[in-house]
Amino acid sequence: MNKKIMSWLVLFLLLVSFYLVAYSQEKVPFPENYEKLIKVEEGEIVKGNPLFMIIPGLHRTYLNDIAYEHFKKYIADYKAGKEVPPFPEGSYVVLVNYEDKEGKKPRLFVVMHKKKEYGQTGGWGWEGFKPNGERTVRNPDKDCANCHYKSAKDWDGTFFSHYKP
Predict the structure, then answer these.
(1) For residue 92, what are the β-bridge partners?
(2) Which of 138, 120, 117, 114 is nearest to 128 (CA)?
(3) What would the mean pLDDT of 130-151 be, rounded to a whole number?
(4) C-alpha distances in angstroms, 11 versus 14, 20, 22, 57, 135?
(5) Which range has the worst mean pLDDT, 36-45, 55-64, 106-115, 124-133?
(6) What CA–CA distance (Å, rounded) separates 132 from 95?
(7) In 3D, which of 71, 76, 4, 61 has the Cα closest to residue 31?
(8) Which residue has the higher pLDDT, 122 or 67?
(9) Least confident span in 1-5, 17-21, 40-44, 151-155
């Protein structure tokens, strides 16, 4: 094989390798049966809240068992301003946002899934969905993680600073 063909072959294999590494990260799945998770809070985001432009109105937050046990164990310390450990591997958080106060028109599902594969975003995989499962966030790693980690008040990228036990 001549050097030119060999060079192109090596370049091609490198590009394919980079592509596979970049896109091998598992996407966060649609939260089927999220209502069966543990509801930890319900609230309303009103005008004046910085999140109003993203998730206005009524919302409910659900956790899987792994996240809930950690939440239950450390929420009081977190609210008291103490340092608390990050959520463990396998934690799953679902925030459901509604257009109306009656909670009849679910508008967006925001899902976070704690996995080792999401190291570049603090260990969380982020995604937004419509009720039909259609993804709504173009670049969740950038768009979601940037906001979640800007706040010094956050707890491992989650927004529980407003939580009232």
Answers:
(1) 113
(2) 138
(3) 80
(4) 5, 14, 16, 51, 33
(5) 106-115
(6) 16
(7) 61
(8) 67
(9) 17-21
For residues 107-119, one letter each, b for 16 or more C-beta atoms within 10 angstroms of the residue's C-beta and e for the rest, the string is bbbbbbbbbeebe
Q: What is the pLDDT of residue 8?
A: 43
Compute the distance between CA of residue 35 and CA of residue 122 in angstroms, rounded to an integer.
26
* Angle CA 101–144–151, to nearest 5: 90
Summary mean pLDDT of the chain: 78
Domain 26-148 has CATH 3.40.50.720: no
Q: Which two tokens stand for residue 116?
A: 């080792």
Q: Where are the domains of the chain?
A: 26-148
CB within 8 A of 11, min separation 6: which ones?
none
DSSP for residue 28: P
SS3 labels along 122-165: CCEEEEEECCCCCECCCCHHHHHHHHHCCCCCCECCECCCCCCC
Residue corresponding to tokens 């990228």: 157
Answer for the pair 75, 163: CB distance below 8 angstroms, yes or no.
yes
